[in-house]
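Researcher: Please predict.
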Amino acid sequence: MKCPRCGTDNREGASFCTACGMPLSGFNQSTTTTQTTNMQNNPQQNETNNGVNSNQPVPTMSPSPQQPSTNGNKNNKIIIGIIIGVLVLAIIGLAIYFLVFHQEESTTKNNNNSSQQETEQQATGESFETTVGEGDDTVTFIVQNECADSSRSEDSDTLKMYFSTNLECSTISFMYSGYSSAQEDADFYASNPYWEGVYEVQRYNVTLNNGVEALVVQLDENMGAIYYPLTDTSNVEIDLTANNFSAETIQKYVVVKE
């Protein structure tokens, strides 16, 4: 049995249409057939009866707009923040490094300048020159820095005295004089209020680098004087305090410029 409304085939004797629910009782096959034929000849009417108008547009469901992802933006902001933080720390570190480096460099330069002004030494390499004498009776000695690297206490034509912190050579002085009792042949004794007793000094000659023999008066194993002759009546007395006062030490520290 066909439904007179929608045309759906239903089983014989069915009370209602299984598709649209229209009551089928009281309809015979001829009535059903006639209505079915009319529905087939007038499909528009059929669609109207079913509550559907083919001329009316079928509404479509538009997709809902996608919400922008917030997790990606948060991650990007975190990454940008970390990069900015690293750059700021790097800039601060470089600024501190350059400030400290330049300050230390400036301090070192100032200390070097002060030390150079205090010593007043015209150093060239490991040594410098000092000239002692009067008039034509002058001689120039080469003084090693290790024996005069601290200060110059006197500086004149007749006396130059140097002090050093080096234990191998602590002091050396050059003094012009016209006479010295050390040149006498008599026994030579030395005493000092700070010494215990009187010392009999040793006298011997040392040949210097220019071939000149200089008289040496040695007080003890660490102290002595060298008398460099300028003329028959004048000389330069060189007082030397060294860790080991010997002929080798004298030849090392008393060097004449030729």
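Model: The radius of gyration is 61 Å.
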